[in-house]
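Q: Could you fold this chain for me?
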Amino acid sequence: MSVLSWQRFDIGLRLILCSGPLLVCVFSLAEFPEASGWWMLGIGSGALVMMLVAPAVAIIATRDAVWLVAVPFWAIRITITDIASVISVDVRPMEDFGGWGVKGASRRGGLLLAAQGQRAVRITRPNGQVFLATSGNTERAVAAIDRALSARQ
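A: Sure. Below is the predicted structure, expressed as structure tokens.
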């Protein structure tokens, strides 16, 4: 397994993700003297820490597949034999997809995993399905996936 790209979410996005766990912590204080308040506060605090520390977009290559991951929320596995092409492209997450994070089909078509920046790895399947993942080093990720494609053919 090789991590080709690991790009953390922008601090603003991480703070937005913290709003839910923060509300759980606040509401748990109303129940705090009771046992239910303790476990709610524990879960809310754990989720709050996770939302501050973990969120990232990763491109991970294994021997036979490429994983596009929005840590800790979402992941998709694309087998090497199911990749028609891989290129480095410019993407405008806000204009083309309506924001950052995991975004579905849009005017550009496909699925976007965006943490920050505008450079992305574009993976196309033979059926035309497109996946985009922002990366700080798109050339390295594309080169590694191309090497894996060449080795399989």
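A (continued): The first helix runs from residue 11 to 17.
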